[in-house]
Amino acid sequence: MNTYPCFENRTALITGGASGIGRAVAGKLLGLGANLVVWDINAARLEELRALAPDRIETAVVDVSDSSAVRAAAEVACARFGGFDYLLNNAGIIGRHMSVNELDEAELDRVLAVNLKSVFVVSNVFLSAPSGREGRAIVNLSSIAQRTGGMVGSIAYATTKGAVHSFTTALAKELAPHVRVNAMAPGVIDTEIQKDVFTDPSKIAAMADVIPLKRLGTADEVADCAVWLFSDASAYVTGISIDVSGGR
Ligand SMILES: NC(=O)c1ccc[n+]([C@@H]2O[C@H](COP(=O)([O-])OP(=O)(O)OC[C@H]3O[C@@H](n4cnc5c(N)ncnc54)[C@H](O)[C@@H]3O)[C@@H](O)[C@H]2O)c1
């Protein structure tokens, strides 16, 4: 039985959906009947995803920090599916490991553009798309780094995730009561963005030790939270951020 019938014949726009958390959300929403529009810079993985259900999945190689590319891809997707019902603002990068003094302007601009500017631009195309439907929802990927400061050397990343948190709170007020807006703040999740941790057993053990649930998380566990936040089961929830962090 489909416990989330709200996704049938609806369309979800997912950025950074070729791998990790975005890919896990794509898989779950596809299984629940949604059409998908997925943007990423990884062409090969996008094609693998599209091949699963070409009649229900539109993919495009889009760098979300490029506003013109985002607007062009949105036009194509809207022409096909008639608008969007759900948005996962998920594409993100940690950036190069640097102290605040080492951080050059080009690297700072890159992290701000991918993790933060894109969230404004993609939300704008999502909201501008035609949709007469009720129950639209946005989920943004923040991080527990927004309150812990993250790893030393990722100050730009932590700052963008704090801003995504504030963006979520402010946009939820702006769009109420028509569109719900929430965030998820994952802890350490087994995806490529964390490959430095997950390729080193001693780092995995050290991380797990400081997490109350004593293990690192999976993309599937974060995706389950996203599905709930998009679904009618969370119809009275907006403007919050949920930690998916094993209690850290
Ligand atoms: N994995 C974690 O521990 C963790 C923790 C907290 C927050 N997050 C956040 O979750 C989100 C997803 O990360 P993930 O863990 O799945 O990592 P991931 O590296 O597996 O996935 C990120 C995806 O974003 C895509 N991407 C990167 N730059 C892009 C760009 N300019 N345009 C379009 N796509 C781009 C990548 O190709 C990749 O498919 C990120 O915003 C990340 O900051 C992850």
Automatic annotation (TrEMBL):
<comment type="similarity">
    <text>Belongs to the short-chain dehydrogenases/reductases (SDR) family.</text>
</comment>
<feature type="domain" description="Ketoreductase">
    <location>
        <begin position="10"/>
        <end position="192"/>
    </location>
</feature>
<dbReference type="InterPro" id="IPR020904">
    <property type="entry name" value="Sc_DH/Rdtase_CS"/>
</dbReference>
<keyword id="KW-0560">Oxidoreductase</keyword>
<dbReference type="Pfam" id="PF13561">
    <property type="entry name" value="adh_short_C2"/>
</dbReference>
<dbReference type="InterPro" id="IPR057326">
    <property type="entry name" value="KR_dom"/>
</dbReference>
<dbReference type="InterPro" id="IPR036291">
    <property type="entry name" value="NAD(P)-bd_dom_sf"/>
</dbReference>
<dbReference type="GO" id="GO:0016491">
    <property type="term" value="F:oxidoreductase activity"/>
</dbReference>
<dbReference type="InterPro" id="IPR002347">
    <property type="entry name" value="SDR_fam"/>
</dbReference>
<protein>
    <submittedName>
        <fullName>SDR family NAD(P)-dependent oxidoreductase</fullName>
        <ecNumber>1.1.1.-</ecNumber>
    </submittedName>
</protein>
